[in-house]
Amino acid sequence: AKDxxxxxxxAKRTEAAKQHIAAMETMTAAVKDLYAxxxxxxxxxxxxxxxxxxxxxxxxxxxxGFMGRGPGFRS
Length: 75
What we know:
mainly alpha
């Protein structure tokens, strides 16, 4: 990554973020349609599951916390 100039690296990160947003918008639309058809008990289960996030509450690529900086992180 150090060989890639900063502007190009940022442009790639921006494009990845745009793709992530598009995927989340698609998922949100599908979840809205599904959620509308659920019983109140099923909605509660869905709410509990989705509150954990797409990674099951385990964070992103680096694990729990922001950029992998969860409990025990030392700079």
